[in-house]
Fold this sequence. Notes:
About 45% of the residues lie in helices and about 15% in strands. By secondary structure, the protein is of the alpha/beta class.
Amino acid sequence: MKFKSDFLNEISARGFIYQSIDVENLDKIILNKKISGYIGFDITSDSLHVGSLIQLMLLHWLDFYGHQSIALIGGGTTLIGDPSGKDKTRRILSKNQIDKNINNIEKTFSRFINLNNNSLMINNYEWLSSLNYIDFLREFGSKITLNKMLTFESVKSRLDREQPLTILEFNYMLLQAYDFYHLNKNYDCILQMGGSDQWGNILSGVDLIKKINNKNAFGITSPLITNNDGSKMGKTADGAVWLNKDKISSLDFFQFWRNVNDDDVPKFLYLFTKLPLKEIEKLSSLRNEEINEAKKILAYEVTKLVRGKEDADEAIEIANNIFNSNIIDERLPNISENKLKLQNNIFTILDAIEKLELVKSRSEIKRLIKSKGVRVNDKLYINSSFTLKEYTGLKEIKISIGKKKIGILKIV
């Protein structure tokens, strides 16, 4: 869909819009004035992971075009837990744990929005902690019906599976709607954005603002981002791919993006980089071996956004050194093997992965190869004989398990 405003046109062209509320009127408003929009983040860990990256990019583009981006930290709502998209009730954290998480995550937001100028990071604990529950229910509880809540997919899916949904979690939806109402009243915030699992919560907030503030409000949800194989974005065999440096090194973060599926590269370039659209179109047309150049650019650009240029430069230098010289970075496990043993298939990929200690058992290695979880020099390894003899002309080869485990086999 083509929009007249720069912000909506940018995020639409890049594939950020999945659902929207009255977005045509929002487009007209943005043309005439700067607006304020927000996204909420529950702080359930001491770092965000790449699953939050699409929301951070939405805030970035809103800020980039001169509007006010509000990163709403769920210091209050995290005490309850969002049921949206969850199979079971979340573990409830203490306020001290949440406060520590907030301190650790603040720097991440500053990389995406200008907190020193126009945009804000606000903690909803500021207003939720002082609510009088009886007054709150009298004024706001009557404005959102249980009938409507039960139609929301986030609730319906839990009930259909006969999984518990507590009164505590039901209150979460009411509190999130109240957040939007509060931001609208006190910060003139007219737009809430979020993942597609937040659609019901956003609708509730828009309805609340109309009923109590007598104003129009707007909502945009982004699509659920999955890998080409349908798996959830940012989840690997080893767990989440974190944004904070103390959770995963910049080299491993770079390599996660460097090793994404070929078919995912165009989508990720649009969503997770600031590269011009024309440049992304050119990179998206690359095929076969050339796609590796696009992957390097993707990995560098995302690492630069999340970790900064210095870390991105260091990561790409280390990655290039692995193949362009005899230097083996000490942080990567490496072994040496005789060329003759590779040629005669005495030493196989099973031996290599086992000796590199990337996987615990040979049966697990075979399973990973069968499920396309092993790459050799960034290409899927699909050889059922497990041979490595085609690589005997090289000085070293890189073996990757999933997105994060990497080892080097030196051929002597």
